[in-house]
Amino acid sequence: MRITIVTLFPPMVEPVLAESMIGRARTRGLVDIRVENLRDWADGRHRVTDDYQFGGGGGMVLKPEPLFAAVGALRTAAARVVLMDPRGRQFTQAVAAELTHAAHLILLAGRYEGVDERVTTGLADDVISIGDYVLTGGELPALVVIDAVVRLVPGVVGDADSVAGDSFVRGLLDCPHYTRPAVFRDRAVPDVLLSGHHAEIDRWRRQQRVRRTLERRPDLLDRAKLDADEQRELDRWRADSKESGDEGD
Ligand code: SAH
């Protein structure tokens, strides 16, 4: 998979993409990530990339020509062009999974007041927001998308099972995790995790996923894909919490 990010500020993204899991995925050739400076596609001696907006007021807007020129030069036949924009569709784990099917993603990072609307309507195949808040630029949103997408590329995360159990993958939050020491500041790891009994451990983890989701994000449960065990657990928790008249604890 190839990912190209077009930005006015390559130094904002390059160090992040060189570290840890993403950095390793790149050196191992699992993903080909390229950072492109939008200014390289701007014309004239000053390579201007932004301009005042028609109608007056507000801040500067990224001009359409450099963005169209950059995408025109960088796109491959399979490229999917994604504009980062707070007005886009909401980025979720499901969208991340969908984007992993693209052979080539081109992520456009806006700046200032945003990009000329003709980029949105005439260049972007997809417009994505990472949440209902406004940032100063599309660099962090693009990094968020890249991180979530690359994590799903086979081989990037060593243990495929751990990705399958992650929060949101099937609509449930993840279970608690513990490492050594078994007792830390008087807090002990649940006995079941030390039991070595894999079926019991698996059951406990499923129960915890359902319970956590019910307590913290009940909205997710409407769309969650539960198996029979998890559904039983959910029904039990709901019945219990109704009986005791509290939130389930
Ligand atoms: N005037 C715009 C905000 C522009 S912020 C508005 O009110 O909608 C400048 C740039 O930052 C945007 O073009 C976009 O690329 C990026 N950006 C800011 N917040 C974002 C978010 N929540 N999701 C995705 N991109 C975002």
Please provide a written account of the structure.
With 249 residues, the chain is an alpha/beta fold. The protein is 41% helix and 16% strand. The protein has eleven helices and nine strands. The chain has helices at residues 10-18, 20-27, 64-74, 93-99, 117-122, 139-150, 160-164, 191-194, 198-216, 218-221, 228-244; strands at residues 2-7, 32-37, 50-51, 61-62, 79-90, 104-108, 126-129, 183-184, 187-188. The strands form three sheets. A five-stranded parallel beta sheet has the order 2-1-6-5-7, sandwiched between helices. Strands 3-4 form a two-stranded antiparallel sheet. The protein is elongated and about 70 Å long. The two termini are 45 Å apart. The protein binds S-adenosyl-L-homocysteine (SAH). S-adenosyl-L-homocysteine is lined by residues 84-87, 109-111, 113-115, 129-131, 133-135, 137-138, 141.
Please outline what is shown here.
With 249 residues, the protein is an alpha/beta fold. The chain has helices at residues 10-18, 20-27, 64-74, 93-99, 117-122, 139-150, 160-164, 191-194, 198-216, 218-221, 228-244, and strands at residues 2-7, 32-37, 50-51, 61-62, 79-90, 104-108, 126-129, 183-184, 187-188. Helix 9 (198-216) crosses helix 11.
